[in-house]
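Page 47, continued from p. 46.
Same chain as before, 82 aa.
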Amino acid sequence: GALDIADAVWILSYLFRHGRAPTCLETANANGDGRIDIADAIRILGYLFSQQEALPAPFESCGTDPRAAGERCVTYEPCEGR
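Result:
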């Protein structure tokens, strides 16, 4: 999938409106700090609308975060078959 404003909205919904949890929490860690919080949504919006630098790896490609601790994602639906 392509990154867009819906990704930031989804993170905020998950955090503050008891939205559905992702099948892979690692995909919501947009700023690469190992936590899922409001800073991740802000980081996405900054990239999309304020010309901030690209998100940490593996942004723009399929794969896992090489710095991620704990459980890794086995699959991520938008990346299946790529």
